[in-house]
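Input record, target 12 of the design panel.
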């Protein structure tokens, strides 16, 4: 929620940013700025064709770099001119222009406003307008804001324009903060809790691998279709660190040798539970899995034991610890992660 003081501060910023029309001539110019034929004559006709948020990104004839004072002035005038054309209050209308997801009545506004600068992309004009007019919150980030930033990044990816509509920060500020957060990822020794979470997130990623197709132009090296980007963001460890700890500490080398599959850990532990042996010596390894020999099953069990933090405990305790890490559902525990998702164009999008 925005406090009354923040609201007053935003009003002050808005009043400073607003272009006042002191005469009928100024008012006429503001209304016509979106269709200023004299100004438009200096630009080639090609700049007015096939405009759009995504289409502009592919164009090579648009200008980048710093905005001039004249360009800033035109953006501000164009925003207020558009609001007047739609009979919208300027104060509320400016907020609506930067929250188009919440306000369908202003959708498409930036395609119109972008006419004021034909040689700039719609996205650049939006970003500049946001900086000039929106009056977003600045200063130190609270822990609640940082957590919200992580959640919005997971849900919307690099679409900071959309993410900003659910935050008091601008899309550019969110983007810049995220870059700094990525640099400030955790370092040092992994904790037992982190290993358990890593296992849980890998299980989640493997569950969705059948929903996601591999793109032909994707040059990433992918093992088991594990989404290391999302896992990295959840654990605040780098993708490389997460992958290294999984493949060199938690995952079995038997998988790369073709002697073990990702689902076999769960099957092995379930069979050990049902076997009911009181010690490792009493386990009949050859009878645990029909499609795996006893030597392979016992080898994987020994690998699991080496991952335990308390190794010198009875067999039942070792089995319980392994179940908690690799198959918690078998002992009635809910998995430590429960992520809702949908697949759009081959990409995993997190949903609430």
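The sequence produced for target 12 reads:
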């Amino acid at each position: 929620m925005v406090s009354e003081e923040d609201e007053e501060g935003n009003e002050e910023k808005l009043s400073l940013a607003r272009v006042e029309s002191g005469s009928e001539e100024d008012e006429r110019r503001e209304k016509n700025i979106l269709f200023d034929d004299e100004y438009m004559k200096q630009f080639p006709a090609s700049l007015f064709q096939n405009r759009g948020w995504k289409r502009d990104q592919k164009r090579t004839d648009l200008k980048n770099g710093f905005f001039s004072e004249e360009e800033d002035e035109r953006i501000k005038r164009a925003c207020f001119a558009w609001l007047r054309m739609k009979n919208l209050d300027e104060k509320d209308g400016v907020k609506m222009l930067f929250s188009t997801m919440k306000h369908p009545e202003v959708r498409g506004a930036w395609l119109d406003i972008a006419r004021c600068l034909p040689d700039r992309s719609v996205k650049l004009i939006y970003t500049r307008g946001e900086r000039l007019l929106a009056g977003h919150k600045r200063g130190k980030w609270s822990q609640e804001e940082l957590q919200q930033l992580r959640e919005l990044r997971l849900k919307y990816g690099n679409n900071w324009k959309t993410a900003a509509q659910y935050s008091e920060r601008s899309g550019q500020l969110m983007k810049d903060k995220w870059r700094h957060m990525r640099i400030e990822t955790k370092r040092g020794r992994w904790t037992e809790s982190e290993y358990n979470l890593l296992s849980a997130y890998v299980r989640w990623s493997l569950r969705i691998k059948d929903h996601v197709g591999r793109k032909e132009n994707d040059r990433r090296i992918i093992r088991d279709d594990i989404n290391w980007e999302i896992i990295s963001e959840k654990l605040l460890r780098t993708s490389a660190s997460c992958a290294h700890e999984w493949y060199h500490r938690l995952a079995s080398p038997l998988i790369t040798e073709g002697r073990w599959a990702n689902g076999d850990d769960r099957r092995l532990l379930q069979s050990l539970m049902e076997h009911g042996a009181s010690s490792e010596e009493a386990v009949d390894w050859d009878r645990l899995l029909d499609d795996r020999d006893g030597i392979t099953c016992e080898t994987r069990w020994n690998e699991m034991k080496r991952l335990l933090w308390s190794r010198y405990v009875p067999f039942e305790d070792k089995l319980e610890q392994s179940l908690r890490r690799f198959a918690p559902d078998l002992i009635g525990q809910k998995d430590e992660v429960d992520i809702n998702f949908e697949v759009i164009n081959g990409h995993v999008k997190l949903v609430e």
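The CA atoms of residues 64 and 120 lie 7 Å apart.
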